[in-house]
Amino acid sequence: MEEKEFQALLQEKTSDVEEIIKQYLPKEDGYQKTVLEAMNYSLLAGGKRLRPLLMQEIFTTFGGRGRVVEPFMAAIEMIHTYSLVHDDLPAMDNDEYRRGRRTTWSVYGDAMGILAGDGLLNLAFETALQAFPLKEDLTELEDEQRIHLVAGRMQAAARALHVLAAKAGVGGMIGGQTADIEAEKKEDDSGEQISMEQLLFIHEHKTAALIQAAMMAGAILAGATEREVAAMEKCAYNIGIAFQIQDDILDVIGDSEELGKPVGSDMQNHKQTYVTLKGLEEAKADVKRLSEEAVDILRRTAGENLFLEQLILSLTNRRK
Amino acid sequence: MEEKEFQALLQEKTSDVEEIIKQYLPKEDGYQKTVLEAMNYSLLAGGKRLRPLLMQEIFTTFGGRGRVVEPFMAAIEMIHTYSLVHDDLPAMDNDEYRRGRRTTWSVYGDAMGILAGDGLLNLAFETALQAFPLKEDLTELEDEQRIHLVAGRMQAAARALHVLAAKAGVGGMIGGQTADIEAEKKEDDSGEQISMEQLLFIHEHKTAALIQAAMMAGAILAGATEREVAAMEKCAYNIGIAFQIQDDILDVIGDSEELGKPVGSDMQNHKQTYVTLKGLEEAKADVKRLSEEAVDILRRTAGENLFLEQLILSLTNRRK
């Protein structure tokens, strides 16, 4: 696919995702209006909508049909957004700006920043639960095939929600954030530098975990087998790690203006990075290997999706 | 039931609940060990375990059997605990002690306080999802009755989880916390005093909502009808509101030492309370009316449970 064609398609698909997310935004009224405003302010900060987009692409590539994936797409973006809202808090990274826009706490105050993050995490589960047939009267289903179908769909939704929860939690993203803070603290306190194992743990949990949740949930909801879901977990691992190594690479060779954020910020608070530990050339080779393997796994498991393949390569080979 | 017998039974049941919760505590290892320690520290702070206890009692009173309620019992205690952890943060109430023990952030720092709260909220959903048959191969279920049973149980678990999420979120507990902060801020900034409607909104959402979730989820998991679940919602509303009015009453007539916390703290940061708005005698009469009505609803809907009836009356008529 030509770059221009890819970019047009990416933009079109991203606006479709945006429209889906908007359907699940909370209405801003009642005595709790402020927290609802703060949540919507956070959700509407823009961004690539990468996780719901990946989820949707994997869902359709595995032959998924219908709208069951949509509440899950909104849910994963809410989880990603809450993690940024809490990360930006004064007690965490103390960031007043993100993507050139004031952060949630710096507009609504610390307390509302905390509550808006909590509200978004909680709303993610409320939203995903809409994929279940909560109101349908199952006892009226007399056709055996039909009840099997409904039971199968519920089980798939429960599995997808379980993966989402597990990858977002202390065994996933929150675990990665904790390990990151702990490693930085250790470096500051005792000068003890981060090991490659620890660095990969942080990249895997802080970044790859939600990409894994997106791709695994998309596959599960489309009815993929356990083996296929496991392949998506590996594919997403590669994408997440390659993305982070590329971050480390750009931090060395990149230009602050082009990158849109100060070089040396974010994960790069660590004195050791993938690049300092393995060297620039090996880091570049690893990005290439990991992302090509990801595309290969995807094609072998889910089938050909040229847009998705190009999306993966654009993420891991990005120049800014 | 004699008071002594009731207290012995309460203690026994509370330790049973404690044992169930402990089965779902995260293991403290890995690079994210600190957040896991902070979560367990928070969960093991003691407390009445009121919400899981109510859930279990309602579950058995409606004829529920088996262990499906147990992950939900642990989940609701995790949600209650996370709300306390975040409430205590410097950016919120800035409390260094709770029940005579140092609060989570004051032991582990602000950042870990935020992450431990996030981790607990997330873990609540991971835990409740264990009530679903995630691994069972449903296609192997050839007996029609059996597949109906499994589908029905999954739907009940999904409904219970949806109620839990809705009552914990911005339409429930988080909504109540927001309204509380907003009302206090208004009183401080402009002297505008809280109205009865606003006060009841705060009591209903901040306190009653999780009691509603406990009792409704217990009923749903036991297979109660929609009408019965709605009755539990009303019953729990009465308990929550009566409990909070009693708090306001004790704040006026109580003794700081007996109450175990400084009189005038907590919700009583508002200049207006239920007692100042309606007078002490009317407030007392309302507590009596609300709690007797709660017991009456319970008996008419779920049947006789003398322990539970006495528990409700002990909560709303407490002297400290």
Describe the protein.
The structure is a homodimer of 320-residue chains. With 320 residues, chain A is mainly α. Chain A has 14 helices and 2 strands. The first copy, chain A, has helices at residues 3-22, 33-43, 50-61, 69-87, 104-108, 110-128, 144-168, 173-190, 196-221, 226-253, 256-259, 274-278, 280-302, 306-316, and strands at residues 97-98, 101-102. Chain A has a two-stranded antiparallel ribbon with strand order 1-2. In chain A, helix 3 runs antiparallel to helix 4 (69-87), helix 7 (144-168) packs antiparallel against helix 9 (196-221) and helix 8 runs antiparallel to helix 9. The first copy, chain A, starts with a helix and ends with a helix. In chain A, 51% of the residues are buried. Chains A and B meet through helix 2, helix 6, helix 7, helix 8 and helix 9 of A and helix 2, helix 6, helix 7, helix 8 and helix 9 of B.
Number of discrete domains of chain A: 1
Unreliable stretches of chain A (pLDDT < 50, length at least 5) are none
Residues in β-strands, percent of chain A: under 5%
Indicate the CATH topology of chain A.
Farnesyl Diphosphate Synthase
The best one-word shape of chain A is globular
Encode the helix/strand succession of chain A as letters.
Answer: HHHHEEHHHHHHHHHH
Cα distance, first to last residue of chain A? Answer: 21 Å
Helix content of chain A: over 70%
Q: Give the helix/strand class of chain A.
A: mainly alpha
